[in-house]
């Protein structure tokens, strides 16, 4: 019999991404009932990250990320991944440490042939493709530098049609942490700089962007880190990196055009930044500063949240996806 299984894991790539402030990134995706995820050693600059595929029984390497040709360096890690259009798309952080020198690329992995294709040119001059979404028949990317003191940009690309990325929007001092296509519109989670609150930005069909939700903090790095659709609503994790950490989950109910706070972490050391929908529930997987973690869940859209950490042998691991096994 086939069991609907939630798959979770903590990898060196995850540790790398968190230490570089790509907290809202997803490093795995499910396509054709198979889990694709990145495996790498970010402490070793002489090894290429690889993409693994797990089908519930076996695990194997399906692609090796090539060197970034201009700088002739191995990618440091993967900072975003989605399944869309029958393929896997992911963004890399190739080199650099700040808002002026970071570089990255976006790849398409064909899940049938295994072909790995770079899309357009590399992102340079302080731009890493940290958020991805499929919207209006296009692949959209939001850039981040691992530093809140830099602009964030949103680009789009039509695989099979375009050869270059098209710039759609620049958010001044607002790196993009998350993207989601919801009810025909594109949403972006933005990080705030010192003295500025993070926002959720929405792109109208006409192409104009506007803030639709604003965070409660102004500490540098506060922002909307992760988005997922559950039921008829959009759920977003908002995080404030202050001395006493604060993390909460916001819900946008599109049919009533209303926002509400669904869950606020009762543990000031927890950051529930990974949201996963599984078997009719939504889950928030968080890791604590101390290295332990927590898992919370709600059984219905807009329903109450409960702590189920005791059901997990290792609650510090964030969820990746669900497969039938």
Would you write up a description of this structure?
With 325 residues, this protein is mainly beta. The protein is built from 1 helix and 26 strands. The chain has a 4-stranded antiparallel sheet, with no helix packed on it. It has a 4-stranded antiparallel sheet with strand order 6-7-8-9. The protein is globular.
Class from helix and strand fractions? mainly beta
Tell me the strand percentage band.
over 45%
Tell the overall outline.
Answer: globular
Helix content: under 10%
How many strand elements?
A: 26
Question: How large, in whole angstroms, is the Cα Rg?
Answer: 18 Å
Instruction: State the low-pLDDT regions, or none.
Output: 1-21
The largest β sheet comes out as: 4 strands, antiparallel
Number of helices: 1
- Determine the N-to-C terminus distance: 8 Å
Output the strand order for the largest sheet. 2-3-4-5
Average predicted confidence as pLDDT = 84
SSE string, helices as H and strands as E: EHEEEEEEEEEEEEEEEEEEEEEEEEE
